[in-house]
Amino acid sequence: MFNEAIKNGKAYETDVKLIKKDGSELWTKAKGTPEFKDNRCIRIYGTFQDIQEQKDREEALMKAQNELAEVARKFKGIFNSAFQFIGFLTPDGTLTEANESAISFAGLKPEDVIGKKFWDCHWWTISKATQEELKKNIERASKGEFIQYEVEILGKEGATTTILFNLKPLTNDNNEVFSIIPEGRLIQDIVDTRKELINKNNELSQFSTIVSHDLKEPLRMINQFMQKIDHKYSGSLDDKARQYIYYAVDGAKRMSKMIDELLNYSKLTEKDKIIELVHTNSLVNEILKGSEQLIQEKNIIVEKTDLPDINGNITGIKVLFNNLINNAIKYADLSKMALIKISCISHPSEWEFCIEDNGIGIEPENHQKIFELFYKINKYKDEDTSGIGLAICKKIVSLHKGNIRVESDLGKGSKFYFTIKKIIHA
Ligand code: ADP
Q: Whole-prediction pTM value?
């Protein structure tokens, strides 16, 4: 450029990076005008202006622009690859952007929907009511309300699906809504499974009521007729016959008890759960009073710390303590001084109760299985057992969002721990 000026007499202006004496670099603007005499360049008038600050600003701007482009690329990537349907609406409900999943799901092109009122777009034309509902909800979202609901929308070729749909208002510094993000997640699988589960539950509850009624009727008959035989022929029956009658009646009674317990188990559901304040201290005292006779007969020493007031379902908590305490009594080892300890410790978010005994204990391979429905350890099958008690305990604890477990060794006793959340949402 400098040579050009000398040769052709052209003024120049260019940015030049100079190396200073100390080795550092400095951006300058070099300007020069050549002076000619007899067609020969005799001098150049020129200046070097320090433009380092301007260059630094330009560089920072370029860097920011590159970063912004990178963020925009990433955003677009997420926006388009998201499994969910996502877009942007103006507060009056005009769709300004929709991601590829939303558009291709319905076999559309962007121009079919962008710029249109959202409720007039293909997805919502499944029914007038759906469109009206959306319109009303967009109105509410444009006033700052977050909206969420499940809705069935239209896909490709008349196919429909259920989505969990959100309208999220975006507000500026003055708290005014300047945009709304419509967002949908495909939940058809969940909806189907939920429906199936509700149907199954209804079927099961009908089934267990019918079965228990139908099963108990013949049992009542066995009972009744066995007792009649016992009364009518008591003179002619020998001891063996009387023993057989006793076994038959006892078997029928046990089966009837099992049916009742099974019915209670199947009735324990989330929807009946009423959460209230439960005074576990007085509740446990009451249970111990109810079992006083057995405790005395077996010479069991009971130790109990002060127990807390907790949030829970009073009927469930009562059954839980009742089953665990009665097991500790039932499976006491009478060859030694039997001991039962009931205690509770407080954790930040839950209570942990422990019912400990020094009874017959449980071998490690059965620690999980005893919580299964109808599981009884072979050796004790003849006792007055149904194998339902701990399954009920497990279900009650899980309805209270807690856990139940046992620590035990054969011959050494058992510690049954269960937790109950301090705050439970009914
Ligand atoms: P059930 O006592 O009616 O059989 P549970 O479900 O309450 O039913 O208990 C399942 C099995 O767990 C019992 O059959 C018994 O073998 C064992 N078990 C329960 N509690 C104890 C305990 N405290 N000590 C020893 N074994 C126990």
A: 0.59
